[in-house]
Amino acid sequence: MSRDDSLRRRAARRLVDAAARLATRTRTAADDSRPASVADVLFMDSQHAAYVQLHRRFVERANAGVGGWTSALEALDAMWETVRLLRGGAPAVLLTLSSNERSVEERRSRFYVESTDLLEDAIRAVLAADLPQLVVPPERLAVLVRVTLEGLVVELAQARTPEDVARVDQAYLDLRMMFGRLVSEPVEAPDLELEPIPLPW
Amino acid sequence: MRFQRVVVQALETLVPPVEVTTADLERALSPLYKRIGIPDKVLETLTGVRARRFWPEGMSHADAATQVARRLIDRHGLPSCGLGAVVSTSVCKDFIEPPIASLVAGDLDLPETCQDFDVGHACLGFMTGMVTVATMIEAGQIEAGLVVAGEGSRAVTEATVRRLLQPGVDFRTYGENLATLTLGSMAVAALLVHEKHATVDHRLLGGASLSATRHSRLCLGTSTEMKTDATKLLREGVALAGRTWAAAQAELGVAPADVSAFLLHQVGKANHDALIAHLQLPEERVLRLYTDHGNVGAAGVPFTLATAIERGVVREGQLAMMMGIGSGLNCAMLGVRW
Q1: pLDDT band at residue A32 under the 50/70/90 scheme
Q2: Which domains does chain A show, CATH number per domain?
Q3: Which of B97, B53, B5 is nearest to B294 (CA)?
């Protein structure tokens, strides 16, 4: 990892930490009806920044010839690391994710669209050579990744003990393994006696 | 259907410059082949098509038709009576409107007295275009007419390869798209004139045309894909061809022994084999051009006639039978005394 990368990651981490602390301090379920708070904005902006950073990092790597499924899983790990940082503020993040306040909804919709686009683009870059063998196309894989990470945030929000957190970590590892199987293995061609087939006139 | 006064004054073909072999297509499809376990070289084994040709990128169907028409005019000239009609007959279309024939006539700067229209009859189009012009000549409506077809398969083939490389494509989808990968490109033009304007004696005699439109939905094609029930289409097409051949023999008063060459629509090995067997055609008098060109749509039968003449399979005074089948389902057989 380059020094720039490291600095960028640390900056993103600080941003996420700040968002989580602010969210935890300033929000409860009872006050969900008020307009988008600084915490909502900061959370989504920090997540968006994390997606942008990851996207840039992995597209750069893909352009430098470091692509493939290993690289893609590293990207997933990095995203999980970002999500994992939210642990302390996960309950507040849930409020942001489920808020029905219009300004939050609009910002959240934008965030979903932009982050999914970034994910799809990064998947296309990192898995360029494996695209034809993907079981799920990039646009749907991007949604799967986003939904997975969001689901893990929900799980983290409910984790009360180290054992609870360990179960969420294990869930991530299992999902990670399943993502690794979304590229199908080549199938050996059968030795067939082939006959000419009818074609349309 | 008999024609007494119609002469095929000239016939020209234009073969596209870009050869794309079946091996080329299979190389492009290799990620799919590896993923779902399709053996190499399966496409050629299944279809008999070794290669097809593409026009240069960006060349339209109308451009192809215009170029072959221009080549015919350059080489053979036009009769002094001028052209009464230009008829475009390709399956491929650049636009819903105007007719491709209008684009060709415009590019050739033909006079306002020349009619221009398209005939859409799937792969039978060119033969139906010849019948239309011949009928107009016999009726005294025109003295001469030009029939053209510019077929191109680049767009549909490339779209199909892209579609097959998408994730989730399985063996069944591959099978459904396989026929599209056998399509080729070609341009053909024929100048038909009233005998009084002819400088050769290549007679369009007439023949028979039958339909079986209860099978009209067995092959549905768009500009990017083709969905077919090829097995049923083959069976019903061959049966219709048998009835049409009997009708054509009766109409023209000819027997198989009188025919020097049977000019079949070029599709693939199984179709050729089935037609030859069902119609009991002598293999040595049948040309197999699908091997190097694939299915070139409406241009197939006239291209086969032109090649038979070029190879000396059809010589002056000999009888050749043009035998076309098109989705619809329609079949036509026309005799030409060359």
Answers
A1: very low
A2: 3-27+35-180 (1.10.357)
A3: B53
